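# step 3/5: fold
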Amino acid sequence: MANIPYSAPIAEMRFVLNEVVGLGRIAGLPGYDAATPDLVDAVLEEAGKLAAGVLAPINHTGDIEGSHLDNGIVRTPAGFREAYRHYVEAGWNAVPFDPDYGGQGLPWTLAFAVQEMWQSANMAFGLCPLLNQGAVELLTEHGSPEQKALYLPRLIAGEWTGTMDLTEPQAGSDLSQVRMKAVRHGDSYRLVGQKIFITWGDHDLAENIIHMALARVPDAPPGSRGISLFVVPKFLVKPDGSLGTRNDLRCTGLEHKLGIRASPTAVMVYGDDDGAVGYLVGEENRGIEYMFAMMNNARLSVGLQGVAIAERAYQQARDYARTRVQSRAVGRGSGKTAAGDDIIIHHPDVRRMLMTMRAGTEAARALTYEAAAMLDTAKRAPDPAVAEAARLRVELLTPVVKAWSTDLGCDIASLGVQIHGGMGFVEETGAAQHLRDARIAPIYEGTNGIQANDLVFRKVGRDGGTAARSFIDAVRAEAAALAALRGDDAAVIAEALVRALDALAVATTWIAAAAKGDPQAAAAASFPYLRLFGIVAGASMMARAAAAALAALASGTGDPAFNEAKLVTARFYAEHFLSEAPGLLNRVTAGSRTIMALAESQF
């Protein structure tokens, strides 16, 4: 029963891309002219086929089998090697990358929609290309010409995969504690140390694995300013790109995890013999700075994982609710039962849960695609002022997308279990796997608490709230435009959004002051502030969706049932999600006082 099918929500994706984030505008940026409507439709359709037909069927079996370390060789579950071959041969790994190195040069906005399908269909599988794309971004931005020529074509093709080797036993979120050593040896370095929690750190899908590893050179300054970044291939690479001898690093163990069990999470040991050969990226002692290119890319993609697992959980819960027979719903009469009267989708509380899942997923999806659209704009807009404004917006949204979307993913996957009732608590339905898989996303790539601190101190406190207020002003203009449309739905959504914006504005002023005057209070208030920001940012996307649906209904274009459902979902979001805003404001401005009030001994 667990292999319940996945169907990519292509109509929803197309609506968000075209009507909410404006893919047509993105396609008009220099270098993105290949992203024609016909091509976009073809990409979405073909990606949906791979996700549904190849990746989804091995999701549950991969969870049961897991990856294994067998005599020093990491073996992935049955079907994964074949699935990866299909993925690579179809060119999916190359979608957003530079054509000069074999990429397809399509917008990140479209690439995010495609990636959502991989993560929904099989999150454990999707982590491999997720890390690889981050390695490509890092080398594209900071690699030398020689490194780009040697590594990028094969990473982009998917012949090789990339990893992010940051964490050590004593250095989790605090990378200033990294101890791995790197000693210069001719034109390379020799690395010695251990890394843990390395996602897809070793596997049997590709012929080579390129590790992006942080380490310290001798006499480096203490703390994060003394960390350098190195390219460390599993197999050394000859100048012509062919593979040489095995490098001195190996996987010594795989973690036994709550979820994403098919994904090999490796303990990697460097330098059992003479030291692993690594090649410096950029300059010594600037590794953390360079690594942010990979980390920020990964943070947006992890936020997308929250959307993806929410979509998968929603689809399964919806389909289950349409068939599960369990008592007559309130208000459906007491006479003879008509066909379908007693399926649980008629129960108001089940409807509440399904609408919460649907609305939350749609809002988070649109916000994540919006961040991707800002990323494209920042990279390609010919007007420097437009590019800079987009860069600041994507920086502001990155911690929100990562944290709010992944928290939602957990909440929505949990609701999926609840809708299944007792059957959701047993593994055979597969609902529990979605919850287990979702739970890692708020932890890795910087815990959601770290994302909240990043939003409060780096994105709001640093500029006194200027970027946040610019965002609030932009959303106010959208709310005013929606309010000007005719109809009760538009008025209700716009009014709720304005009230929530007022709360966010007050909270932002408080946070900006506290970040400078009382950092501990600002840190204590950071989580409810990020949640408030996420709810309002999601509402801004739902307001756009409502406006587009109203326009389509007024003009008689599109699918009326789709647009009517879009309008109802947007109003549900306004009435149920935005109602949290006043309470979150109170938690920001007053609730932080008790967080640090108890002495350590009182816990």
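# step 4/5: annotate
The radius of gyration is 24 Å.
# step 5/5: archive (pending)
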